[in-house]
Amino acid sequence: SLTLPTPCNLRTIGKDTFSGNSLLTGKIDIPSSVETIGDGAFSGCRLITDVAVPSTVTRVGTGAFGGCTSLCTFYYDVANNTAGKLFPSSEDYDPMTGGTIIMEHPFTLTLGPSVESLPNNFCWQGFVGTMDLSKATKLKSIGEYAFYQCSSLEGPNALAFGDALATVGSY
User: Fold this and answer.
1) Helix, strand, or coil (residue 142)
2) Cys-Cys with 167: which of 98, 118, 123, 141 at CB 3.0–4.6 Å?
3) What 3-state DSSP class applies to 13?
4) End-to-end CA distance of the chain
5) Each residue of 13-69: pLDDT tens digit?
6) Cα(165)–Cα(130) distance, rounded to whole angstroms?
7) What is 44-94 written as a DSSP string?
8) What residues pair up with 126 in beta bridges, in sequence order?
9) Nearest CA-CA partner of 86 in 109, 104, 112, 105
10) CA-based angle 9:18:150, to the nearest 5?
C-alpha cells in the first residue's frame, strides 16, 4: 500500500512515477493535497486492489491506472477531468509485457458527488463489472466513447443518470 504523511504537501504524482512497481499492493488512497496524477502514474501496478481518487484532483492522466489487473474497487471523484483514458482499452500496448493490456476481471467503479463531466474514452472497451453512478448527482456531460463497447455494465445504478445530465457524446 501507499501511505503518505498527514498533512501532506504532495501536489503532483508525475508521469510513470510508480509504473510497473510490484511493491505497491492493496489500497491506494490519493492524498487530498494531490491535484494532478500524471500519464501512466500507476500503470502496470498489478497488485493494487483498491484506489480512491479525491475531489481535489483536477487531472488524471491517460492510462494512469492501466494494467492494474487486481483492482476490486475504484472510487473516482474528479469534477472535470480533461485527460484521456483512465484505463487503456484492451487494444492498447503494454510496455511492461510488450503485449496488450486486457482487464477482463470484474470490479466496481464508483463515481463520487463532485464528478461533473466524464472525458472522452473514460472507460475501456469491454469493461466488465459494476458501475455505480448514484452519487454523481452533478454529472452534466459525458464525453465521446466514454462507455464504448462496455456491454457488461452491471449494478442497480449502472446507467442511472441524474437530472443534471445535459450532454452525452457519440457512442
Assistant:
1) strand
2) 141
3) strand
4) 36
5) 999 999 999 999 999 989 989 999 988 899 889 899 999 988 888 888 877 887 888
6) 20
7) T-TTEEEEEE-TT--EE-TTTTTT-TT--EEEE--SB--SS-SS--TTSB-
8) none
9) 109
10) 105
Residue 85 near residue 65 (C-beta atoms within 8 A): no
Cell of 51: 484506489
How many angstroms separate the Cα of 10 from the Cα of each of 4, 80, 150, 164, 170? 9, 20, 34, 33, 37
Q: What is the DSSP code (8-state) at residue 101?
A: -
Q: Tell me, what's the pLDDT at 92?
A: 47
- The answer to whether 127 touches 150, Cβ cutoff 8 Å, is yes
Which amino acid appears at position 28 of this protein? I
Q: How far apart are the C-alpha atoms of 125 and 95, rounded to whole Å?
A: 19
Return the half-sphere exposure (C-beta side, CA atoms, 13 A cut-off) of residue 81: 34
